[in-house]
Design goal:
Elements (H helix, E strand, L loop, with lengths): L10 E3 L7 H11 L5 E8 L7 H9 L5 E9 L3 H11 L6 E5 L3 H12 L9 H15 L4 E4 L9 H12 L7 E6 L2 E2 L2 E2 L2 H18 L3 H6 L10 E4 L2 H4 L2 E2 L4 H12 L5 E7 L17 H19 L6 H28 L6 H24 L6 E2 L2 H7 L3 H16 L3
Parallel strand pairs: 1-11, 2-3, 2-5, 3-4, 6-11
Antiparallel strand pairs: 5-9, 6-9, 7-8, 10-12
């Protein structure tokens, strides 16, 4: 059971009483009369053939308060898209599948690319961005949740606790970040959050001095969680990265656009496990290696927009400071694991820290070589300004795909 302690400057909503999910859903059903709710599911086609997503859909099918489910489908040909329509057809709620590789959405993407407004690379960020656009276009929801499709320990209580803070009309939250203990199968997981993000934020605080943004980021218990919820208005202005910096980028945007009392984090699951990425020590274009570089660059770019000046010397100091802090954290986590009867491989932990330290330098070099690099996808407000009917075109493309292929 969690304690009631409030750390940092972001409100934490704990799981203090293990309320039955049926109680939460009863309240959410009442809330939905005033604030209709939607769920975004960014998915790869391969996840339809895994073990996690079928279980997720089985649970979501029993959720009574959702007005809409928007699925973004990546890496799917026509036959696979048609299979996805049947797969998600088990959902009784109103739902649509965005066929991102389909000719209609690719044609719209080409129009946006001609205006310099299309996402620059494939991936989760692009998928989420188009799903957000469809939520705006359809106008069916006021509160929206988003979570990944590879959660092996999913139950519908996770969704209820995730969307509750932005659905309750008595709350004033615009955004909620989910968090949970990354413990599964007798091991402590979450290496990138534990061994990169938190030590790096603490190191940056030492190198650049006190900074409200770093204090804000350090307030989140699991900053890399892929689960968050928001009010629909948030979707108009938010700019999200198209790379692995998505979660950090979303938190940065919320700090830029809203005061702290409009943001919160909520304990949404007692246990959580999902597909694990390889460390990819020999390939900085994949796995946790690329993730660590993208995340580091996201933090650096944000600080640069606030006037912080970085040089090669700064990054050398940052690497050394990070390395010492991260090694101390390994001892802390090992002691925590021992006391709880869990396993922690100190050798693999130190190998990860060594890789992340090296990648801090790579991220710094990339930033200095390309200071004008802007991986953010434009906000939907900007896109609508340039192409006023873009949301209508997006909605029509999705509907036409559904009408043409759902009966095939």
């Amino acid at each position: 059971m969690a304690d009631f302690y409030q750390n940092g400057i972001v409100t934490t909503l704990h799981n203090l009483s293990e309320r039955p999910v049926e109680e939460l859903e009863k309240e959410l059903l009442e809330f939905s009369k005033r604030r209709p709710m939607a769920l975004i599911l960014p998915s790869l086609f391969s996840e339809l053939e895994g073990t996690a997503l079928p279980n997720i859909i089985e649970h979501i099918a029993k959720v009574p308060y959702l007005s809409q489910i928007v699925i973004g489908l990546d890496r799917a040909n026509l036959e696979e898209y048609q299979h996805a329509l049947k797969f998600f057809g088990a959902l009784p709620q109103n739902h649509r599948v965005l066929w991102n590789e389909g000719p209609r959405l690719k044609a719209l993407d080409a129009k946006l690319e001609a205006l310099g407004l299309a996402p620059k690379e494939l991936g989760k960020g692009r998928n989420v961005w188009y799903c957000m656009g469809y939520v705006l276009a359809s106008g069916k929801a006021e509160s929206v949740a988003l979570h990944d499709c590879d959660i092996l320990t999913y139950d519908r209580g996770l969704l209820a606790r995730l969307i509750y803070p932005v659905a309750n009309p008595l709350f004033n939250y615009e955004f909620c970040k989910g968090y949970y203990a990354r413990v599964a199968n007798g091991k402590i997981n979450g290496r990138v959050s534990r061994l990169l993000v938190t030590p790096l934020i603490r190191a940056l605080q030492k190198v650049v001095g006190h900074n409200e943004y770093l204090e804000y980021m350090d307030s989140f218990r699991y900053p890399l969680a892929g689960e968050f919820s928001f009010r629909r208005d948030v979707l108009n202005d938010i700019r999200i990265p198209s790379d692995w910096g998505l979660e950090i980028g979303v938190l940065s945007e919320m700090q830029r656009n809203y005061s702290h009392n409009r943001l919160c984090q909520a304990d949404i699951a007692k246990t959580y496990d999902h597909k694990h990425q390889d460390l990819s020590a020999d390939n900085d274009q994949g796995g946790l290696s690329k993730m660590s570089i993208d995340i580091t660059k996201a933090l650096i770019r944000k600080l640069a927009t606030q006037g912080e000046i970085f040089s090669a010397e700064t990054f050398r100091s940052l690497k050394a400071t990070y390395y010492r802090i991260a090694l101390d954290f390994i001892e802390t986590y090992n002691n925590d694991a021992i006391m709880n009867g869990l396993k922690l491989d100190i050798h693999s932990e130190e190998k990860a820290v060594e890789l992340f330290a090296s990648n801090i330098m790579k991220a710094g070099e990339s930033f200095l070589d390309n200071p004008m690099d802007t991986p953010f996808i434009p906000s939907w407000n900007r896109v609508v300004s340039a192409m006023p009917d873009v949301l209508d075109q997006l909605k029509d493309a999705v509907e036409q795909d559904f009408l043409e292929f759902s009966q095939a």
